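Quick entry, no commentary yet.
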Amino acid sequence: MVSGDANAWQWEQTAAHDGYRCVAGVDEVGRGPLAGPVVSAAVVLPGDFPVPGVTDSKKISPARRDHLYDEIYAHAVTIGIGIVDPIFIDRINILRAALLSMALAVTRLKPAPDYLLIDGPYKIPSDLPQAAVVKGDSKSISIGAASIVAKVTRDRLMAVYDQEYPHYGFAGHKGYPTRAHKDAIRTHGCCPIHRKRFKGVVMTEPRQKTNLA
């Protein structure tokens, strides 16, 4: 039985019609920030998933995302998380890091899926059959669920980093290139979670205070 908006299940239903029995939606968050990891989630939902409103995390308020995050964890068949840190992002570039984080998330699903729905235009490094779905987080309930889980997971990680590196405001902007964040980099220099190869990350020592006395 399919629960909720039937249109949101079209990709999953097509895969089931083709004989697949365990379909995972996969999405990532964090390609654009100047700091922090890229985080992905892979989610397998049951056909009777009872929670309405699961869609692209960018279209949902933080409070609603937190609620749906809890509901997804309560009802999902399995969830996997993949994280690639800033050092590795600088080493291999952000696109490859994002695809790698999605592949890592898939490997952590138990039971393992037999088909993947990937958000975006690119397939991931995996031997599993898969479909790349542009704007998939708005078209597939499984990808939408992965979008929410990845977003909440990363936001909570950035709140932890905010406690460790309080000068940058990570709890607010989550590492994205806001004016306040760029000003903080210019004032304090980079911290260990900055992506040092990203345009906008200024590799300088903190400004010296001028003695006006």
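second:
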Amino acid sequence: MRAKLDKFENEIEKSADEYRPISKRERLNLESTLNRIRKNKNVNIRISEAVLEGLKRRSQEEGIPYQTLISSVLYKYVTNRLVDEKAIRKTLQMLSLDK
């Protein structure tokens, strides 16, 4: 009896012919990248109770765990994707006054 494949597994089966071997160097580069992405480190920080309560409240509004929210904010900060909404509004206001 053959096992019944789900949709995801069927897609893998369909694309099996598209497999192409890669060099050992390419494989090592891919594995290195994946290992860096997968690694999580635990960090202990001191944070005020008021800030922690604010983070927990915002995480509930967003529907995600507060530690995930903290990690997301830090990730956005280090990748220059964290934006200051007030600064953006001020810039937009200034631009509209120039017209």
